Amino acid sequence: QLQVVESGGGLVEPGGSLRLSCTTSGFTFAYAAIGWFRQAPGKVREGVACIDNSGNSPIYTDSVNGRFTISRDSANADNTVTLQMSSLKPEDTAVYYCAVGNPGLCLSPLMSADFASWGRGTQVTVSS
Predict the structure, then answer these.
(1) 69 strand-pairing partners
(2) Three-state SS letters, the chain
(3) Are 59 and 106 in contact (CB under 8 A)?
(4) Residue 97 to residue 15: CA distance in whole angstroms
(5) What was the pLDDT predicted at 54?
(6) pLDDT for 23-53, tens place per residue?
(7) How far is CA 63 from the centre of its chain?
């Protein structure tokens, strides 16, 4: 059974950092694209970052490029994808979701409808 679980959200001051983790199981991790999305209250869900099965050339939405880094680790049994977020801004406040899709989905702009399996999300709040 495919499972996707996000963790690491919380409250942080502007300019701070957070590290989100997406732990997955139940599918061939090496063949999947993994995306991070976010949804703020009253706004549509937007793609934040994506890493394909090779781990090369991840993509980012413009508003987080240079501040966020996505990486994947298949060396452990958890098959984890991490989103390191730095220089956080109040506008980064949202529920962050991890999603699994077929290879080749890491295209700009990220389309949430292309990703088949989702976690329940983790809240990130950037506020002083």
Answers:
(1) 84
(2) CCEEEEECCEEECCCCCEEEEEEEECCCHHHCEEEEEEECCCCCCEEEEEECCCCCCCEECCCCECCEEEEEECCCCCCEEEEEECCCCHHHCEEEEEEEECCCCCCCCCCHHHCCEECCCEEEEECC
(3) yes
(4) 22
(5) 81
(6) 988 888 888 899 999 999 999 999 999 999 8
(7) 14
